[in-house]
UniProtKB/TrEMBL annotation:
Record flagged with keyword Coiled coil: no
Species for this entry: Capillimicrobium parvum
Protein name, as recorded: Peptidase S54 rhomboid domain-containing protein
Main localisation: membrane
Biased composition range(s): Basic and acidic residues: 38-50
Membrane topology listed for this record: Multi-pass membrane protein
PANTHER family per the UniProt record, alphabetical: RHOMBOID-RELATED PROTEIN
One Pfam short name: Rhomboid
InterPro entries documented for this protein: Peptidase_S54_rhomboid_dom, Rhomboid-like_sf
Gene Ontology MF: a single term: serine-type endopeptidase activity
Amino acid sequence: MARGADLFVVCKNCGSEVSPYVTECPYCGQRVRKRAPKIERGAQRPAEKPRRSRRSSSAPRLGRLRPGELPGLRTEGRPVVTIAIVAGAFLAYLAAVAGAFDPLNAIIFGKLDGEWWRIFTAPFVHLSGGGTIFAGGAYQFATMVAIGVFGTMLERRRGAVAVLVIAVLAGAGGMLAAASLDDFPIAAGSNGLALGLLCAWAVPNLLAWRRGDEWEGDLLGTAVMAAVLLLMPVAVDIADAVAGVTGAVVGLVIGLVLARLPARG
C-alpha cells in the first residue's frame, strides 16, 4: 500500500484508485485502511482555485451609515433649502393668523402693477384676507407634505442648488403666469412649487418605467399626491390652477435636464 506523498492507493477488492486520505473505497465500500494518515504540519496542501468575489474589485464599498441615514440613500448634510421653505411658510402662516400682517399685501390680488415682489412672497402665504383658517391650514398641510417629501429626496439626490432653482422657477414662475394670464388673479400658496419638486423627482422613475426598467420610487403614491395638488383649486379659492400647472411643467423640464446629469454621490 502506498505511503507518504503518494497521490492514490489501489483498492484490493475492486482495483479502483482512491485517495490516500480515506478509509473506505467510495466505489465498492471495502475498507482500505483502519485510519486515515495524519497530515503533518507545514505540509503543502493541494492548491485551491481562488474564489471569485461576487462584488467587483472596482465596485465602491459602502461605509458605516451615518446617524439618521437610510440604507441605499447617502446624505450629505441636512436638506437646508427644503427645511427653509417649509419653515418660511409655517412662520408666514402663524404671522397671518396672529394678525401681524395682512395677507392681501403679500399674495397675487389683481394685476401686479409694478409690485413684482408679490410673485416671491405669494408662494409662502396660505391665507387670504377673507379665507378661513381651516381652508388655509388644509391647503398648507398638503403642499408642505409634498415639499417636505419630494424636496428632501431631490435635494439629497441633486443638491441644494437644484432645489433652490426649481423652487424659484416653479413657485415664483407659477405666480407670474397666474398674474399674467388671469383677468383678475387671486393666487397664493405653494401648489406650483410643490408640483415642481414632485415632477422633477418623478422624471427619472417615469423614464425607467417607459424603458421597462426597475424604478426606485412609488409612482402610484406620487400620482395620487400630484392629483391632490392639481385639484386643490377646486376646494381652495387662493390655490390657482395656472400656477399649479406651470409649476408642474417647470418641474418636468428641469427633471429631464437633471436626468442627463450624473446623480450626486
